[in-house]
Fold:
Amino acid sequence: MKRLRTLPRRRVYAIVAAVALLAATGGIAQAALSGSDPKPAPKPLAAAVLDSLRAPKLDGVSARVHFTNNLFPAGTLPSGTSSPLTTGADGRMWLSGDGRFRIDLRSQAGADAQIVSNGKRLTIYDGTSNTLYALPTPHSMGGGDHGAAQFPLQGIQSGLGGLLRSFTISGAKPSSTAGRPTYTVRIAPRDDGGLLGAAEVAWDADHGVPLRLAVYAQGDSDPTLELKATEVSYGRVPDAQLAATPHPGAHTVSIDAADLHAAGRLTNVTGVDAVQKRVDFRVAAPDEIAGLKRGQVRLLENDGGNGAMTVYGSGLGSIFVLQGKQDANPLLDRTALRLPEVNINGQTGTELATPLGTLVTFERGGVSYLVGGLVPPVAAENAARDLR
Structure:
């Protein structure tokens, strides 16, 4: 099997960029393994990152994982729902040197879920609904062999310095994850981060592979989303471990790039007046909502009709507003979730409130609105009511 030539560049994304941008929004908690708690020697953060880039190349990774999802409030999901993707689960993960991977999860209720990528196509199987989703994978981060020499210590220090202007970043704390010596870094918004409190990432000190990722809501000591390795081994992964399991009789939903574009495409048409000329409804874009000043207004192209997206405020504490004709693609499928109802200036809307953010949707005058952000319910509700 071809060795992982692009791993150094992927490591710097996984360690530095994942810490900065929270991509994912999953996490991994530290594993308490009996009789073993190895920790690496203390190092400055920049030096720990640089050493991870210099780690030996890998042919693959196999791990047992634990996924925690405390995002959805009790009663939000349909009765009987126990999907590992929404309630959390234990499972296995295999990652090959060429980027293929497979993740198997099983909830405490016995429901299965599987996520598989062959590099070109991503499949997600949900056992609770016996549904298989197939969609194209995102574009890769880029190729090329970017060794540690192209990420000198000074460059890493400079990059971390840039992040410090918007985030507070801890040092590389020596830790132990899945029985491996790791460095753990915690990042938190310096200013208004909305309901987002912090994120953590831990990577193997010897191999540079992330073994723990976590996202915390503001004021919570327990992670809201968490994905952790509890056992890990390195080496070539057999092709059989990377292949998707057949699911005879499963309902298949195939999503192509054209389908993704049909759901909505942001354009370069900006400004209230310019957007208004391209839609067949009145754009509600007051100068201020919920105490936040209006930012950019952009045209959103949709196969069911053009819409508009407006951002209020800046940074992680901002609020976005989507507007479109009510008979176009729904902005939020209310039939899939049992959402509480809210009153928006006499109109009945629904609200999805999570520890990390809120979504409010309502209809008025033939126009569908979706208001949301990493904000508490009162902020999203007030913003919706200010859309006049």
